[in-house]
Design brief:
Blueprint lengths: L4 H6 L3 H16 L6 H14 L3 H13 L15 H4 L2 H9 L6 H8 L8 H23 L31 H13 L9 H10 L8 H12 L9 H4 L44 E2 L5 H12 L3 H14 L4 H4 L5 H15 L2 E2 L6 H6 L2 H12 L8 H4 L6 H31 L1
Parallel strand pairs: 1-2
Length: about 425
């Protein structure tokens, strides 16, 4: 009878949870281009890129329930070439989506008997982006530590009697139960947010802004002398224990290796001073609203509407009371987080002053957001409790929902643009 950890966290925002569960259920269990067992195996591949045992365990169970071949669970060498060929795009989308090109798309669509159809590929891309982003949420909210799902333990399927969260779509009754439980929860006491109010007020008198590449450069400079920010994020959160098993090994580093190739491939800063500047992705040239939505909806019926509802739902959440209580617009704070995440993936909004990010987000919060977004497997289990103590629990969950949706949209924009270029 206990609630599953992801739905417990998302249950602080029942309207969003409804939208999420509808999308999850549609992707995994409703009619679509891909066979059901393949859908769950693709989810396993995606979750493995971030060493997310929590999601791997859930989808191993669902893969077997869908009649999947248990031999496939031995690793990529035991799956059909068609699925294995998806590994490259999985790797790129998970860590450096700006590298995806129409040549990657063409390769998948033109490999003799192992070729993908456009509809199948769109379904697969949405699944990959969905699971990559969900892994960020899982680590960001500490769900990976849930012992009930063997989050940090060895890979082991749950009993068939247990319910997977993607099946928890019992409509209003389920949401009402979550709402009832969450209303009874005692939320964290909230400190006064004078510093945030002052930062938001300063935005309105700020006349000179840095562009987004300078913002990224500043992030890199803050980490110089300590090595990679990912490697030393524990130093920034002094006193926090690393995400490690009792034997000292990083969780999942060995057990999930069979589901991925090139495990050392990871996130790198989009703009590096020692390299030629990568082409910036300009939203006015290719946006979700004007381009991505129609393409994905045409090739995979109705998924565009579900994704669009989810993007709009997280944007409309009013739980960021830290701004509202001070008479400020919550949308300013949310847009700062959203655009900072897109900035890390090289996506530029020409109508946005990126100085707002530095005004709104304290350094520790920026470190948290960047870690959860770009290398969630390095997220410390205690970071969720420690970042910005003046946040209510529900507001911290809201931040993680913004990370989930902004990251997913960023991956989709790059993948769908490449598909569009291939079609043209």
């Amino acid at each position: 009878g206990r609630l599953e950890a992801v739905t417990q966290q998302m249950g602080y925002h029942p309207q969003y949870l409804d939208s999420f569960l509808k999308t999850q259920h549609y992707l995994m269990h409703m009619d679509g281009p891909l066979p059901f067992d393949c859908r769950h195996y693709i989810a396993i591949m995606a979750a493995a890129r971030h060493q997310c045992r929590y999601l791997v365990n859930l989808h191993v169970l669902q893969f077997l329930r869908a009649g999947g071949d248990p031999q496939w669970l031995r690793g990529l060498e035991f799956i059909p070439p068609k699925l294995r060929n998806l590994n490259e795009i999985n790797k790129i989308l998970a860590h450096r989506p700006w590298l995806i090109t129409k040549e990657h798309i063409e390769k998948l669509l033109k490999i003799s008997e192992w070729s993908w159809s456009l509809a199948e590929l769109v379904h697969a891309v949405v699944l990959l982006a969905h699971c990559h982003a969900l892994a960020s949420f899982v680590f960001g909210c500490g769900c990976e530590q849930d012992e009930g799902l063997g989050g940090r333990g060895p890979l082991k399927p749950l009993s068939l009697g247990n319910q997977c969260f993607c099946e928890a779509t019992a409509g209003n009754s389920y949401s009402q139960e979550l709402l009832r439980i969450n209303r009874k929860r005692s939320l964290d006491s909230c400190m006064e947010l004078d510093s945030l109010r002052e930062r938001m007020q300063r935005i309105h008198v700020e006349t000179e802004g840095r562009d987004e590449m300078r913002l990224l450069q500043q992030d890199r400079e803050e980490g110089e002398g300590q090595g990679s920010r990912a490697e030393h994020c524990s130093d920034l959160f002094a006193g926090l224990s690393p995400l490690a098993d009792t034997d000292g090994e990083v969780t999942g580093a060995t057990n999930l290796a069979c589901y991925m190739q090139d495990p050392d491939f990871g996130y790198q800063d989009f703009a590096r001073r020692d390299e030629d500047q990568t082409q910036v992705f300009r939203v006015q040239d290719y946006s979700w609203e004007d381009h991505g939505f129609s393409l994905v909806n045409r090739l995979y019926s109705d998924i565009g509407h579900l994704l669009d509802e989810k993007f709009r739902m997280v944007d409309g959440l009013q739980s960021s009371a830290m701004a509202k209580r001070q008479g400020c617009e919550p949308s300013v704070f949310k847009r700062g987080i959203w655009n900072y995440i897109h900035c890390m993936f090289g996506i530029r909004y020409d109508d946005y002053d990126y100085a707002e990010v530095n005004q709104l987000l304290e350094r520790m919060l920026k470190v948290y957001i960047k870690t959860v977004t770009c290398y969630p497997e390095k997220t410390n289990s205690e970071m969720f409790d420690r970042f910005w103590k003046q946040f209510k629990h529900s507001e911290k969950v809201h931040v993680n929902l913004l990370i989930l949706e902004a990251r997913m949209q960023a991956e989709l924009l790059y993948a769908l643009q490449a598909i569009t270029q291939y079609m043209i």
